[in-house]
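Support request from a user on the community tier.

User writes: "When I paste my structure tokens into the form, the page sometimes reloads and wipes my input. The last time it worked, I copied everything first. Here is what I submitted, just in case something in the input itself triggers the reload:"
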């Protein structure tokens, strides 16, 4: 991922749903933004804090070369944190520094079917992936959101079934995991993309895909948490390294 920092300027914002706000970023810095072709392209945003910059990771929902803008969809999850509150209050002319993009996933043409699942934090990456699927693609998209007012339009091929699940006030990821497990498993080679709250994704859905269905890492390399309940992104990084250490010590783990 490019380590040089670019400064972008807020052009305008759109409230997409109850908990999602889209921020369009452009200005002179757009010229140095190099798209990488991944549908899960992400950037590191730098928010100035009292002890130095606080870094947060966000998907680039779309790039518009004609308008010289990128769009980022932020989950507004309340007044906790830095990125969500920044996005909801963002106004034209505000600036933000970012690094990137990085990325790892794009739908493969040789996959026989696709499984994409996640919560609001993964909705931008899943929507971008869905738009990139060929018209004859088959498979499933499962999206867990808080409630009906969080559903947004997602363009998807006819053969890809879209399911919304509502968590309400329940623990994040539980409804998502149940909905994914309830899907009839299709024949042929699947490519999987699953992200969201880390506990459900890493401790339920990843073993379900990798162990119970035996999907190899090559076809399921994009299954991970995007955030962890009760932890800031810094705390979540610690959670991830502890999990990686445990998995190194127990090679049977996926
Ligand atoms: C590769 C990647 C791509 C991502 N893309 C996006 C994206 O496009 N849009 C997006 O909104 N997020 C995305 N995320 C998740 C985002 O980085 C985290 O949600 C991040 O913690 C938000 O920062 P914050 O400053 O708002 O909250 P933090 O300061 O990190 O956390 C404060 C509190 O809010 C809680 N919290 C954090 N995120 C959520 C959430 N989504 N729902 C409910 N509670 C939450 C935390 O558990 C904590 O208790 C992505 C993460 C990764 C790794």
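"...and here is what came back when it finally went through:"
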């Amino acid at each position: 991922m490019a380590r040089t920092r670019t400064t972008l300027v807020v052009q305008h914002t759109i409230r997409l749903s109850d908990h999602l706000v889209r921020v369009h970023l452009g200005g002179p810095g757009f010229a140095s933004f190099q798209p990488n072709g991944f549908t899960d392209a992400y950037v590191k945003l730098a928010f100035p804090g009292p002890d130095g910059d606080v870094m947060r990771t966000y998907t680039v929902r779309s790039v518009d070369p004609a308008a010289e803008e990128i769009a980022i969809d932020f989950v507004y999850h309340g007044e906790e944190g830095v990125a969500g509150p920044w996005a909801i209050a963002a106004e034209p002319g505000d600036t933000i520094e970012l690094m990137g993009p990085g990325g790892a996933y794009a739908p493969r043409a040789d996959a026989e079917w696709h499984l994409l699942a996640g919560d609001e934090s993964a909705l931008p990456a899943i929507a971008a992936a869905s738009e990139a699927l060929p018209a004859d693609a088959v498979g499933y998209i499962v999206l867990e959101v808080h409630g009906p007012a969080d559903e947004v339009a997602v363009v998807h091929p006819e053969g890809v079934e879209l399911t919304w699940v509502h968590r309400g006030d329940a623990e994040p990821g539980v409804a998502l995991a149940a909905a994914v497990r309830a899907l009839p498993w299709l024949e042929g080679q699947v490519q999987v993309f699953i992200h969201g709250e880390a506990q459900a994704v890493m401790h339920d859905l990843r073993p379900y895909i990798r162990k119970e269905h035996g999907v190899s890492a090559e076809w399921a390399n994009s299954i991970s948490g995007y955030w962890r309940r009760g932890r800031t992104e810094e705390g979540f990084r610690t959670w991830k390294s502890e999990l990686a250490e445990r998995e190194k010590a127990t090679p049977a783990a996926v």
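Agent notes: The reload is a front-end session timeout and is unrelated to the input. The radius of gyration is 18 Å. The mean pLDDT is 95. Escalated to web team.
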